[in-house]
Amino acid sequence: MTEYLPEGSLYGTAENTAAISSAAALSECIHTRKILEAPCIVCDNNHNLIVDMPAARGIIPREEGALGIAEGTTKDIALISRVNKPVCFIVKDFARDEHGIYAILSRREAQLQARDYISELIPGDVIPARVTHLEQFGCFVDIGCGIPSMIPIDLISVSRISHPSDRFAVGQYIRAVVKSNDPERVCLSHKELLGTWEQNAQLFSVGSTVTGIVRSIEDYGVFVELAPNLAGLAEPRADIQVNQHASVYIKAIIPEKMKIKLIIVNASDESFHNTALNYFIESGHIERWVYSSERSPKLIETVF
Questions:
Q1: 72 partner at 20 to 30 Å CA-CA among 90, 166, 216, 304?
Q2: Residue 33 resides in a domain
Q3: Are 230 and 197 in contact (CB under 8 A)?
Q4: What pLDDT is stored for residue 10 in this prediction?
C-alpha cells in the first residue's frame, strides 16, 4: 500500500524538484497522476490558488483546492491558509491566458488518492503526521495531502500536560497510531509510541541527577516529568511552579509500584531539558501495547 505523506513532505526532494522543473516532466505527470508539491504564493479574489513552479505557473481552481469545497462542507479558509506553504496537487492539463501557458492543477484529486489510502488504515497502524494547529483539547494533524485528523490531549503522552503545546509545535513532523477509522474521521493516539514504563525507566539510574519538567503540584508532592511517558514524585516545595524546569536527584526506582522517587535540587524557568520526542515505535502495526512494568500487579494497556 502506497503511503501518502503530510503536505510539505515532498517539496524539496530531488524527485519532486525534477518533476516541477521542466514542462516535459510536468506533462508526463498528467498521465501518471503523480502527486507533486510546490509553494502556493497567492490565493486570488476568486479563491483560486496560484502555485509557483520553475517550469510553469500553476493554477488550482477554487473547487479543486480541497475536498469539500465544491460541496460546501469545507470552508474557504482551508484555501486561504495555504498561502506561503507547499501544496500538493496532480497535473490535469495545460492552458493559455493573457499571461501565457499555465498548468491546471488539482489538490482535491491528490486528496482523493490519499483518502483511498487512509480508508484502508486499521486500528494499530503507525503513520506519519504533521502538526497543523493546537487547541486546548487536542492536536490537529495532517495525515496525508492535507487531510486532517486529531490526537486528543489525553492520548498524547502518559505524562499529563496542560496544553498540547507542552509537547508539540505547529509544523512538527511526528508519528501517530490509528485508534479508530470510520468514514467520517480517523482518530489517533500517540502515547503508545513513546515507550513503556520499563523502557523509559531504564534510561535513568538511582543516584543520578537529571533535568525534568514540573507537570503538576499536589498536596502530597510534585510530579516531575523525566520523559513524555515517565514522571516521578518529589516531596512538596513551596517555591516550585508548574512548567518550571527542575534539576532532580533520583532517590529510588520501584518497578513493582511503577514509581520513581525524586528530590528537587533546584528549579528555574530556563530550559536545558531535552524535549525531543524519542519514539520506541516508528512504523508498522501494534495489536496490543502494555505500559505496565512486568513486576507491577497493575495493568495499563491499549488494545487496538
A1: 90
A2: yes
A3: yes
A4: 96
For residue 21, give the C-alpha cell.
522543473
Q: Grid coordinates standing for 233? A: 514524585
Say which CATH number the domain at 88 has: 2.40.50.140
Interatomic CA distance for residues 279 and 260, integer angstroms: 21
Q: How confident is the model at residue 275 (pLDDT cuts 50, 70, 90)?
A: confident
251, 206 contact by CB (below 8 A): yes
Report residue 18: phi and psi, to 5°.
Answer: -65, -40
Q: Residue 233 — very low, low, confident or very high, per pLDDT cuts 50/70/90?
A: very high
Q: Which domain holds residue 212?
A: 197-268
Say if 7 falls within a structural domain.
Answer: no
The amino acid occupying position 147 is I
Cα(47)–Cα(145) distance, rounded to whole angstroms? Answer: 19
Percent above pLDDT 90 for the chain: 92
- Each residue of 71-92: pLDDT tens digit? 999 999 999 999 999 999 999 9
* 297 within domain boundaries: no
Mean pLDDT along residues 128-146 = 97
The answer to whether 268 and 247 have CB atoms below 8 angstroms apart is no
Residue 58 cell numbers, joined? 500553476
Query: Residue 240 domain-assigned?
Result: yes
